[in-house]
Amino acid sequence: MDDAAEAPDAPRATPSRLARFLGSDLWLNFRRSKLAIGAFAVTLLMFGLAFAAPWISPQNPYDPAQLELLNSNLPPLWNPDGQSPFLLGTDDQGRDVLSAVLYGLRLSLIVGMLGVVVSGFLGIGLGLVAGYFGGALDTVIMRVADVQLTFPAILIALVVDGVAKASFGSALDTNATILLIVVSIGLSFWVQYARTVRSSVMVERSKDYVQAARLIGLSSPVIMVRHVLPNVTGPVFVIATINLALAIITEATLSFLGTGLPETMPSLGTLIRTGNRFLFSGEWWVVAFPGIALAGLVLAINLLGDWLRDALNPKLQ
């Protein structure tokens, strides 16, 4: 008999995570969707421009030493009265609109992402506890969530922001104000995570692997975090993607209303509020370009979230 025929099969190399992802249905679905590819490209471009702002912006809009009042109210460069290097014109302080948009985009993204982290951490934690333990604890958490759903998210953020500013007043510096906005957004959007995770955990807790983990003596926190949580994260990614757009819109709304970030560190909402004063005086570029940047960013993230929701829905496969 041939010795080669009797030799055991050589062990196969375990494919890497990247290789498994490139061979997954999710990647195949993404490659087939031109809308998802376009939305991802725009989102990636926005993130890249925002976090490269200190290196690609013509000026630092936060540095008063770089501002010249003689350069105020200049139109975009393609206008006959435009001047280099102010591609998108300047505002009433001589601040380059392109630089302000890039820095404002970065600040809006930072606040939005931190708000999603806070709301996700709070909602996922409460959803895990409510779904795993059930009983009175589940009832209390869900009733609080039901009560919060009766109020618009922006109203909750306004209340939290107003109470904090009334309590601390001038003691809030710029960093504290940013932290306050992040907490306000986080407290506004945790309910969606909690309700979704709770429903998934209630299904998972009765499965065999959870019962086996209990039999070998693992504690409830270990079972929830190491075994149950990885099996309920699919819908969480969809919620987080869509909530990122909502968090950015909420921050922009708060700043537009004058209760968000200060003008010394303008986000897109602050820039729109500032430029709105000059809209009817003919200086349209001061409000138009921040508005376009905000609309484009939110639209791209929403389209990406919609595709991710459909791609992860087994009923649509």
TrEMBL record:
Membrane topology recorded in Swiss-Prot or TrEMBL: Multi-pass membrane protein
Annotated transmembrane regions: 35-56, 107-133, 140-160, 172-191, 235-257, 278-304
Keyword line: Cell membrane, Membrane, Transmembrane, Transmembrane helix, Transport
Domain ABC transmembrane type-1: 105-305
Highest rank taxon of the organism: Bacteria
GO biological process, one term: transmembrane transport
Chief place of localization: membrane
Name of the protein in question: Dipeptide transport system permease protein DppC
Species of origin: Methylobacterium symbioticum
Gene field: dppC_2
